[in-house]
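Example with several molecule types.
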Amino acid sequence: MTQQITIQSPDDWHLHFRDGSMLNETVAATARCFRRAIVMPNLVPPITNAAMALEYKNRILNAVPDASQFDPLMTLYLTNLTSSQTVLDAKAAGIPAFKYYPAGATTNSDAAVKEIEVLYPVLQTMSDEGVMLLIHGEVTDSHIDIFDREQVFIETILSKIVTSFPDLKVVLEHITTKQAVDFVSQASDNVAATITPQHLLLNRNDLLVGGVRPHNYCLPVLKRNTHQEALRQVVASGNPRFFLGTDSAPHEKNKKENACGCAGCYSAWSALELYAQVFEELGALEKLEGFASHYGADFYGLPRNDTTVTLIKQEWQVPREIVLPNGHPIVPFFAGETLQWKLG
Ligand code: NCD
Ligand code: ZN
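Resulting structure tokens for the full complex:
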């Protein structure tokens, strides 16, 4: 039985660092194993232009224990006011991507896009300039069932974007359904997807059976086990258009354990280990490196990392609670659970 695996250092192609003193917690947790991360812009107010992104990047770099070991890749929040000039400025500042949140889709998305068609000229500029579009793929119409929102988004909005902009590089973030797996598998090489540890490890029973489990609540919400199985099969297949994006998204304990609990799982302290567990369960440990360390860099047109990390087969327990720099507790994803793999 495999006792140790060494892989090229991984990157996290989707996460939330937040801001202020929280960065001392979140950035250190990610930089312990990932060399780069695509940083989501959903702060309050959102990061909407290159100048804001570069300031935010500096705040992140100030929180990195060893700045030569970690490179944050910034994104801008697409709003109804984003212009082609915003895209040109982003490109000049080395910002690789914009994040499209349908209005009201998730945490801090109130500023987001109401009618994507209005922004088609901006998407054309992104396509022309090689700036990527990262998508939270859920419709927000109140009459659409929450478990159907990803599928309906794919059918009504994503398929049109992909047809209208065949050269635009698109990442459908944190996919949760078989429909998303099928759509991305059948789309052109310019369309990819990220997958989180929670959507590989859990299904909606883990959210609702035996009581509501707020620490497993994230958006898009966990789906039924047939969808989980489709996600597991596609990562086990080694398809290079599906790669690692943790969506690590911390919320303080009292915001999660609440009558109206926040969406988001804080997985940074155990993410790579959780993915290793999934790949081992699938009998596909040899596919972990491609998923975690190769396919994302290749899709973004960036070099693969020149360092390695080693995972050791050794049981350890995820902490039940972490105290944030502001003194408030947070419950990490998989708190108190025993994991099989440990970062060496
Ligand atoms: C994220 C957050 O908390 O910022 N929450 C989540 O459930 N994933 C936002 C997001 O990625 O949708
Ligand atoms: Zn996210």
